[in-house]
Amino acid sequence: MKPIAPFTRISLALTALLSLAAFVAQAQNATPTAAPTPAPAASAANARPALTVAVDTPQSRQWPRRLSANGSLAAWQEASIGAETAGLRLIEVRAQVGDRVTRGQILAELNADTLRAELAQTRASLAEAQAMAAEAQANAVRARELRGTGALSEAQIAQYLTAEQTSQARVQAAQALLEVQQTRLAQAQVRAPDDGIISARSATLGAVVNPGAELFRLIRKGRLEWRAEVTAAELGRLAPGTAATVTAASGAVLVGRVRQVAPTVDAQTRQALVYVDLNRAPGSAPLPALPGMFARGEFLLGEGAALTLPQAAVVVRDGFSYVFRMIEGNRVAMTKVRTGRIEGDRVEIHSGLAADTRVVVVGAGFLNDGDLVRISTVAPAAPASAANR
């Protein structure tokens, strides 16, 4: 018998090992596997609450009713100041933009040399007319005395009487011309027509004033008004006398009342203007409030009932406001609401929630729709601001 070669022995060993592995695998596949035992379903009694929360119902409170609006500040009234006498040169400018002026204060002066000369000439003409009138009056007196004596004819007497009346008319005309010249001379001084603040100045030293040219612009009394823009639906809620509080872009706080509601609505913007006379709020900082500034304000419309919740009860997700109301089984349902005003730590609920609904007021920010919660037995403490109402 021939001896087995080493290579042949190795091949036989590998064959035996492969056969043994195949047998073991076949035996395992033949053994039936036990079906997995399903886990018992968790009962509601054994479920663990997600959070311990405090619940409460919305509270009705008397809150001030306000109407917010945007607008701009403007001068209450502006006066355009110009020279009434044209063709004269400006020789002095006494007022600058921002100056507070009083009624009758001189703002600028025009060269009045020509006017003074014309005034002197008019006075001389008046004196001449008065002298001629005196002579004519004396002649008329003598003519009346000689009437009926035959010394003068009726035609001569009538001529003297007519000359008397003509001379008196010339005196009156000269006096009127004198008053005109005096007025023109007075108009060579440009004066403020009222108390106020100079808001613009176009007067230039040395310039010749043209007829109707504006030299200064004056904010009468220095008063401002707020021109608020409101919608047509909001217009009916406002009336003259309604109080308003306005905050300018500079931070200045002003108060006032509605003076006038515009009688028309803009056809393009569908908004109407409401004019509010303004004064600085007592104790407010002396910040600038200038015409043309943007201003945001509120109209005070009295008080009314408001359904309110603590701000912690309202959560904002994806740009919408939600509250978590309690449902059966101590679970919560996320409910969308529409909010309104905020006073202190409470927020007004406009819609989406009934007055008797139990709502999570502590812990709402950590909940999701359908979560199981544990209700705290300790009632939530009333905020200090609410207690003081």
SSE diagram, text form:
Elements: H1 6-30, E1 51-56, E2 59-75, E3 78-82, E4 90-93, E5 100-101, E6 106-110, H2 113-146, H3 154-187, E7 189-191, E8 196-201, E9 214-220, E10 224-231, H4 232-235, E11 243-248, E12 253-261, E13 271-280, E14 294-310, E15 315-317, E16 320-327, E17 331-343, E18 346-351, E19 359-362, E20 373-375, H5 384-387
Parallel strand pairs: 1-20
Antiparallel strand pairs: 1-19, 2-10, 2-14, 3-9, 4-6, 5-8, 6-7, 8-9, 10-13, 11-12, 11-14, 12-13, 14-18, 15-16, 16-17, 17-18
Helix pairs in contact: 2-3
Number of strands: 20
Structurally, the number of domains stands at 3
Over all CA atoms, what is the radius of gyration?
A: 49 Å
Q: How helical, in percent, are the residues?
A: 25-40%
- Strand adjacency order, main sheet: 2-10-13-12-11-14
Principal-axis shape: rod-shaped
Largest sheet properties: 6 strands, antiparallel, barrel
Can you give the mean pLDDT? 83
What multimeric state do the chains show? single chain
One letter per element, helices H and strands E, the order comes to HEEEEEEHHEEEEHEEEEEEEEEEH
Low-confidence stretches: 1-8, 27-45, 381-389
Q: Bin the strand percentage.
A: 35-45%
How many helices in DSSP terms?
Answer: 5
Ends distance: 118 Å
Which class of secondary structure composition applies to the elements? alpha+beta
